[in-house]
Amino acid sequence: MEICLTAFLRHYFFVGQEKGALKTLTKAEPAAITLPLQQTALYSGFYVNELITRVIEPETANPQLFQHYLQCLTGLATQPQVEPTLRLFEFHLLKILGYGIDFSALCRIRFTSR
Question: What is the DSSP string of 50-105?
Fold first, then answer.
């Protein structure tokens, strides 16, 4: 089986035999074009992957998070500055995890304390 797996390329994976947590990859097909992440954007993409693997349970379906992930990778590949893209993804991730920040409440607290 000849497979070329590239970082940050969306694939369709076909898994054969499963033995507990160990799975056998039998086939992989590219599902989209490769996002050309280089230099800081590449390391930022690895950071986003690390965040997801640390805070989301394995094999948990979360279509909303996946959409934000794709938007983040696209932003990293197309925007000159990575920081705004990363902060937006982190914001969405916190919201999905139930730790979202209600900025309107913070504004109300600030203005009522004056």
Answer: HHHHHHS-TT---HHHHHHHHHHHHHHHH-S-SHHHHHHHHHHHHHHTT----HHH
Which of 66, 53, 57, 61 lies closest to 92, judged by CA?
66
pLDDT for the residue numbered 89: 95
Long-range contacts, stretch 39-42, CB < 8 angstroms, 24+ apart:
40/82, 41/76, 41/77, 41/82, 42/7
Contact (CB, 8 A) for 76 and 37: yes
Taking the model in full, what pTM does it have? 0.70
**Signed CA dihedral, 70, 45, 90, 72: sign only:** negative
Residues of the chain with pLDDT under 50: 1-2
- Burial code (b: 16+ CB inside 10 Å, e: under 16) for 5-21 equals eeebeebeeeeeeeeee
pLDDT at residue number 91: 93
Q: How far apart are CA 16 and CA 25, in angstroms?
A: 6
State the Cα–Cα distance between residues 34 and 9, nearest whole angstrom. 5
